[in-house]
Amino acid sequence: MSRARADEEEYWHSSKFRAFTFDDEDDELSQLKESKRAVNSLRDIVDDDDDDLERVSWSGEPVGSISWSIKETASSSTSSLEGRDSGLQKGSSSYAAFPKQVSSYSLSSLFKGELCLSLSALSDTGVKNYAPELRRPKAEYKDYSSDWSPKDTVRRMQRGKVCSLERFRSLQDKLVLLDEAVAGHDGNVITAVLIFLKRTLRREILFRELEVRQVALCHLIHFLKEAGEQKLLLDLLRFLDRTEEVALSQYREHLNIQDVEKRREFLKGCIGLPFSAEDTSHIQDHYTLLERQIIIEANDRHLETAGQSEVFRKYPRKASILNMPLVTTLFYSCFYHYTEAEGTFSSPTNLKKTFKIPDKQYVLTALAARAKLRAWDDVDALFTTKNWLGYTKKKAPIGFHRVVEILQRNNAPVQVLQEYVRLVEDVETRLNLATKYKCHDVVIETYKDLKDRIQLTAYKCKVERGSAEEEKINSILNNMQIRWKN
Which cell locations does it reside in (predicted)? Predict the structure, then answer.
């Protein structure tokens, strides 16, 4: 009996396993529980005060990030395996030789719920790795769950914080929220609240409440125009009895119509909308212009394809005339159809008469078109008028100084420029233009008329020696019949 007991004692002292004991003082699991209680008590204190603070590990990475969690899991597993292998190799029967797993229980691991991983490291079965729970910071949940007042909500939205507006369920709360947004004078916040109200209120209620809130109403109208919500915009304008704005909004829809024939029919229907008298005439002109452009485009495409017109052969068209402005259409007609009779749709004079184009606009456009073609005879005829006695006179409603500038931009020869520089009435302007564009004859004649010998002598140095201009200056200076002022 005593021998059997001695063998049993020897077995327990020599084995690597320990017998069961009720003593919890050295029990690893008990230490783990005590550590967890202490850490939980610390976490309550830390969570209350530092919800918005970011925790950073010794490596400099934010606690709770994915990279931190992977490193934490790997380090815990490695330390557990190494400790266990060293314990098995030693084969010591003493409790002190058992590998300690304290390093695997850091504060961060307890915060992230790695208790399962540590317990599995203590067991004899294979080690299992569990991914830690990744949770959002409590401060982020506050943005959704906290019971913010309308004023606080608007204030947080102004600071760029995430706020849920779904908690404002009653009509009164929603209107208070809108009033606070308007009082904050922040257009982005006002628009965000209006989008929320548009989604959660019936149209009749929304329109009725916005009618007495003009600032919010203007923001909503602008938002609907920018967002292209045409149907809701028209309903709102009809509710407000803004008939002209309704008509203009419907008229703007023609911009989205690409087919020319459909656009023409749409514009024809817009003529009967409740526009003002002035706007009605503009809509009528727009429809008439598009109708003309369709006719001109079809005819010119045929002429260009057949090669029957010299101007189309020398200057091929670069773009279609369809949907172009009135001034562009007039320039096109002056370029390709300048000599046509007034009875044709493509005649420039017909366009001028039909659309009541002012003389200044017509002369500017025709001058630019004919100068580009270097048709100087047409340019001359454009400014030549006859009186009732049959005398001809040049007259320009835009001023001859502008005529000179347009001709110079189109590389007109000096002879043509000089002819129109002479017609500039203001002497100083005439001299400046003549000097700038090297119209020497005009400068010499002007100084002669002014009887300014000094300026004429000074200008002699600016012309080439032996040129006709120098001989002309010498002839004038030697003329004894001229009474010079200086």
Answer: Cytoplasmic vesicle; Early endosome; Late endosome
Kindly state the helix (H) or strand (E) to which residue 331 belongs, with its residue range: helix 326-336
Burial class (CB in 10 A: 0-12, 13-18, 19+), 452: middle
Instruction: List pLDDT tens digits, range 263-299.
Output: 999 999 999 888 888 899 999 999 999 999 999 999 9
Q: Which helix (H) or strand (E) holds 385?
A: strand 384-386
> Are 94 and 50 contacting, i.e. CB atoms less than 8 angstroms apart?
no
Query: How far is the CA of 128 from the CAs of 65, 78, 109, 112, 117, in angstroms?
Result: 21, 12, 15, 16, 7
Residue listed under structure tokens 């002429």: 303
Report the pLDDT value the prediction gives residue 3, as an integer from 0 to 100.
Answer: 57
Q: How far is CA 305 from CA 80, 88, 313, 348, in A?
A: 88, 98, 10, 23
* Encoded amino acid at 61, one letter: E
Backbone φ, ψ for residue 339 (5° rounding): -90, 5
**Distance (Å, whole) CA 449 – CA 447:** 5
- From residue 163, alpha-carbon distances to 128, 146, 155, 453 in Å are 41, 9, 10, 85
Tokens coding 170: 């009653």
**Length of the chain as a residue count:** 486
pLDDT band, residue 429 (cuts 50/70/90): very high
Confidence band of 30 (pLDDT split at 50, 70, 90): low
* pTM, entire model: 0.61
Residue 85, judged by CB atoms within 10 A of its CB (0-12, 13-18, 19+), counts as exposed
The whole-angstrom separation of Cα 102 and Cα 31 is 9
Q: Tokens 């703007």 sit at which residue?
A: 252
Quick: pLDDT tens for 321-344.
Answer: 999 999 999 999 999 999 999 889
pLDDT for the residue 147: 73
Residues 230 and 149: their CA atoms lie apart, in Å, by 34
Instruction: Please say whether the beta carbons of 269 and 238 come within 8 A.
Output: no
On the 0-12 / 13-18 / 19+ scale of CB atoms within 10 A, 114 is buried
Strand partners, 385: 393
Cα 106 to chain centroid distance, Å, stands at 51
Element housing 394 (H / E)? strand 392-394
